[in-house]
Design goal:
The complex is a heterodimer. Chain A is about 40% helix and about 10% strand. Chain A is α/β, with parallel strands linked by helices. Chain A has a 5-stranded parallel β-sheet, with helices on both faces. In chain A, strands 4-5 form a two-stranded antiparallel ribbon. By secondary structure, chain B is α/β, with parallel strands linked by helices. Chain B is about 40% helix and about 20% strand. The chains are: A alpha/beta, B alpha/beta.
């Protein structure tokens, strides 16, 4: 791709990410509860995946050769739903029903939603499921790739490391994990609650190829995802350094926004910053 | 006395796996570093590319199986019963919630892991599994039923917990026995009471019924191999016919077969009932037969409890 076309694509994706951010804020506002901080931090990652990297077809969610994505950090469900809606899996109109009684859009990802491979929300489980899918892909000699997004706080879970061992033991080079390294978990900064550093060294020690990027820069994420495809004989993890609340200045790196909706005044300010009417 | 053939349900499970390996290519087997004990290594030797050892990591065992099931495989996941329960939340939130085709086939259930002691025995698992929506819970009574149940489960979509034992127990079904998920099997007719048993305790129940017959007490024996979904109709009919129910299981008296039967009867046809099982205790080291005796799971104790209960019969 020429550099000009590349720039144009990046611009388009950045615009898409902005739209998704507005959806996310509106959804959580309408619902009256949810996790805006960790939803906003990973918008650029999901945008890069669904609008650049993944081989998928929203009109045929069960297409056998599709690339798979599992949102292991299930509390970022609003971002996944907004991305799936923008990608055409279901109507954008559905988004305002998030967390409402009788809605398809459950508080955490549910496998009955078109495009959701497996339910998640209880932390630590997505990488194991991704491993199983990647093993099945190898067994059937399929070319699809498997992606999963983990939270950094989620890496406190022992199951993540059980799964990390398996991915490298079985040389799952058809698997890419991405860690949303926003540095905050519910109770505070990860380094204060349960330190993760040196997180890159940990994954390297577990046999993974490690790439570190600015996880709020779409072109960097795309480059890393492309590079991961060329790594053979071992799985790749992309440590995506992000800001919790990314896109809304007064939310960035403020842990109060991990698990609460914005109030009316905050919403107005946030949407103004994101440059749209919602 | 006729020679009774003995075989463990665990061994029958592995026979079934090897058969399935040939006839159903989607079947894959996972183990958590106990493949010598569970004997899934026999499948691994024959179909190495379809066997995945995940190391001693039970949460990942279940999660990996979930991923394989999502992608069209039929994973049988094996470890000891007690250790599978370490992944209870993974089983609930992923396998059962998404109604995935994961078969959790566990060995060394109940007290059958005798000398290893309490940490390796499993007396709570039926309760833990049957409380989960979508979950099928099967406890085969002998090697033939185990083999048939495992093969039947490979052809039925949906999660299942199959509870197996390593101790050799009597075979009483014929090779032409047909396993039907959720349908209890009446093994003996009788009018005075019904003994409802599951797993290893079915042969003890049959033995107890024979002893009772010598004392002119006629016991019906019902093998409830599927604890969930439970065969309400057969249980209610037995209660109507005999008016007294005794349940027997190699499991805690809380929340297992006895609990499941009581739930059916109390809402439909309450009768005198006695739940025989391990009385809210942990196990301990000992030979299997010694433990069975200490914890009151012998046919002699079934006879004794039955006679006491019949005295209360109105």
């Amino acid at each position: 791709m020429g550099s000009r076309r590349k720039m144009e694509e990046t611009k388009k994706l950045e615009k898409k990410a902005e739209t998704i951010r507005r959806h996310v804020l509106n959804m959580i506002y309408e619902a009256g509860s949810g996790h805006p901080g960790g939803s906003l931090s990973c918008v650029d990652i999901l945008t890069a995946l669904y609008f650049h990297t993944l081989q998928h077809n929203s009109k045929d969610p069960d297409w056998a050769d599709r690339d798979r994505f599992i949102l292991s950090k299930g509390h970022a469900a609003p971002t996944l739903y907004a991305t799936l809606a923008e990608a055409g899996y279901f109507s954008v109109e559905e988004l305002k029903l998030l967390r409402k009684m009788g809605s398809m859009l459950q508080g955490h990802p549910d496998n009955k939603i078109p495009g959701v491979e497996v339910s998640s929300g209880s932390l630590g489980q997505g990488l194991s499921a991704a491993n199983g899918i990647a093993l099945a892909g190898k067994l059937d000699k399929k070319n699809f790739r498997v992606y999963t997004l983990l939270g950094d706080g989620e890496c406190d879970e022992g199951q993540i490391w059980e799964a990390a061992m398996l991915s490298s033991h079985y040389k799952l080079d058809n698997l890419t994990a991405i860690i949303d390294r926003n540095g905050l978990q519910i109770d505070g900064p990860t380094e204060k609650i349960m330190c993760l550093e040196s997180i890159a060294e940990k994954w390297r020690a577990f046999g993974w190829h490690v790439i570190e990027v600015d996880g709020n820069k779409i072109e960097e994420i795309i480059k890393a995802l492309d590079n991961a495809k060329n790594i053979k004989g071992q799985p790749t993890v992309i440590i995506a350094h992000t800001f919790k609340g990314k896109g809304v200045s007064f939310m960035e790196w403020i842990n109060a926004f991990h698990g609460r909706a914005l109030n009316k005044e905050e919403m107005k300010k946030a949407l103004e910053e994101l440059g749209g009417e919602g | 006395m006729p020679v009774v053939e003995l075989k463990s349900t665990r061994d029958a499970y592995v026979d079934a796996l090897v058969t399935l390996g040939e006839e159903k290519k989607e079947v894959v087997v996972l183990d958590a570093d106990l493949s010598v004990s569970t004997q899934t290594n026999k499948f691994a030797n024959k179909y190495p590319e379809r066997f995945f050892n995940v190391g001693c990591a039970e949460q990942n065992l279940i999660g990996t199986a979930a991923g394989l099931a999502i992608t069209g495989k039929i994973p049988f996941s094996s470890t000891y019963a007690i250790f599978s329960n370490r992944a209870w939340e993974q089983i609930r939130n992923t396998v059962a919630h998404d109604n995935l085709n994961v078969k959790i086939a566990v060995s060394h259930a109940g007290l059958t892991n005798g000398p290893d002691g309490a940490s390796h025995q499993s007396l709570e698992d039926i309760a833990l599994m049957r409380v989960i929506p979508n979950m099928t819970v099967i406890v085969p009574a002998d090697a033939i039923e185990a083999k048939k149940a495992v093969i039947s489960e490979a052809y039925r979509a949906g999660p299942a917990y199959i509870r197996l034992n390593r101790v050799k127990t009597p075979i009483f079904f014929d090779e032409d026995y047909e396993f039907r998920n959720g349908k209890a099997v009446r093994l003996m007719d009788g009018q005075d009471l019904t003994i409802i048993a599951t797993g290893t305790m079915v042969s003890k129940a049959l033995d107890a019924a024979k002893r009772l017959r010598e004392k002119d007490i006629s016991a019906c024996v019902l093998n409830v191999h599927t604890i969930k979904p439970i065969d309400k109709e057969s249980i209610i009919n037995s209660a109507k016919e005999t008016g007294v129910i005794v349940t027997v299981e190699e499991h805690s008296v809380h929340g297992g077969l006895g609990g499941a039967v009581a739930e059916v009867l109390v809402e439909n046809y309450p009768v005198q009932m006695k739940i025989i099982g391990v009385n809210d205790k942990f196990g301990e080291s000992g030979e299997y037969d010694e433990l069975i005796k200490k914890y009151g799971l012998t046919s002699r104790n079934i006879v004794k409890s039955t006679k006491e209960l019949l005295k209360k019969k109105r």
